[in-house]
Amino acid sequence: MADLPPASVPPADEASALVSLRGVSKRYGDLLANDSIDLTLAPGEIHALLGENGAGKSTLVKILYGVIEPTAGEILWEGRPVTIASPVAARALGIGMVFQHFSLFEEMTVAENVAVALPERSFETVREELAEVSRGYGLALEPDRSVWTLSAGERQRIEIVRCLLQKPRLIVLDEPTSVLTPQESERLFETLTRLSAEGTAILYISHKLEEVRRLCRSATILRGGKVVATLDPRAKSAREIAAMMVGSEVGAVRAHLSKGLSDEVLRVESLSLPPEALHGKHLRDVALSVRAGEVVGIAGVAGNGQSELFAALSGERLSPNAGDVVIAGTGAGRLGIDARRRIGAAFVPEERLGHAAAPGHGLSDNTVLSHHATSGLVRAGFVAFSEAAKIARSVVGHFDVRTPSDDPAARKLSGGNLQKFVVGREILRGPKLLVVDQPTWGVDAGAARLIRQALVDLAAKGAAVLVISQDLDELFEIADRMAVISEGALSPLRPAAEWTREAIGLEMIGAHAEADAVLAREPA
Description:
Blueprint: E1 19-28, E2 31-41, E3 46-50, H1 57-64, E4 72-77, E5 80-82, H2 87-93, E6 95-98, H3 110-116, H4 123-136, H5 152-164, E7 170-174, H6 182-197, E8 201-205, H7 209-215, E9 218-223, E10 226-231, H8 238-246, E11 264-273, E12 283-291, E13 295-299, H9 306-314, E14 325-327, E15 330-331, H10 337-342, E16 345-348, H11 363-371, E17 378-379, E18 382-383, H12 385-398, H13 415-427, E19 433-437, H14 445-460, E20 464-468, H15 472-478, E21 481-486, E22 489-490, E23 494-495, H16 501-508, H17 512-521
Helix pairs in contact: 3-4, 11-12, 12-13, 13-14, 16-17
InterPro entries: AAA+_ATPase, ABC_carbohydrate_import_ATPase, ABC_transporter-like_ATP-bd, ABC_transporter-like_CS, P-loop_NTPase
GO molecular function: ATP binding; ATP hydrolysis activity
Pfam families: ABC_tran (PF00005)
């Protein structure tokens, strides 16, 4: 990745500030989510807001965007106190927000979703501006595609472009690159640097600390709702910053010792499935295997068939033949999700809120969703809620899930804590096979390490673990073997140590012969 020119604007003082937060606090009962926070941004400044999941970052930016009201403190816009009573008021001031969780209407098109946020412009004007901005910033979008047919990365592009079309003076970005490809991320960095040079202030939330060190000249670190440091992130290592975020050293994942070849738990043979959606990917002759005691990683750019592969493995889509997917010796291609769970499989989908967990239901209810088929939680048509609550509490305890109450609704948890819950919920079942899609998307360094270690430990106990991830660092850290998915086709599996990043990049764009040549010339 080429170095970007540094932002020309130094960290702000109040005299030069576009926006200042003074003593901002937010209390929910006994929980002090934000505790007297001061934060100042100048025009053109790219300022990072860092902290582990649950540190108070989302609460703070929701206050700034008018989603929630502060308990105490004040906000100054260009030196004068303002009350930001709603997102409409925030946008009127010139504040744009790109949330980590998408706020899109599934059944509407890309252009329709953008037009909803710009009611003062005609639909045709929005379509034209959408095409112009997406081309200019290298964030490709098809205006007439329905959102429900798009990958997570493509949906993130909509959120970013929709924000840019509002021409904000301050942009708040919450984990903007978590589902973008390296190439898309690079274009976004170039865009942000250009916007900064034009005077737009940017408040940047990310758990990718090397990204922060490269893009930002100032950073505020929150822990437990308080500011614990304000610094130039370039002056510290990523590990030092992570330690400030979590309050202790963040170690590397401990690898498990290989026990040699073991029984095959998952086998996929010549699996081909036409796309279910108009713009989905056709799975083409997919073949892979995962043995007991190993972690297999699937790398790839968003939208290349990952969701289709997950659906075929989990039973959300059935295969033409039972033998297309074999789990623990049973032909499972024609079995549904619950039947696959009963033969020892567990699944964690990419979208944690809405797919992996019902947003408005408590953690105990959400435990029933995946445990009812195997744990006897439903007997004679009745749900044993007390047992479900006991399992949920066990997940919370074992996986350090930080909750605002005893049995909160899933949507009340921060992204990282909900991810720890849905991964822990499946691991606690002791599955023979775990298939997990994007296990640490939008998760802080401490939570990511916990999840990755849990996956490695599960394999060490004899389970087969399949990880679909866009994070190459993650796959190189935990995978024993890896393959690349591109346009619905899967490359051959290779030991992770044999892959190079160059070869993976070539496989991602379908340049198979070139990738083979690189591996033959430059083994890892």
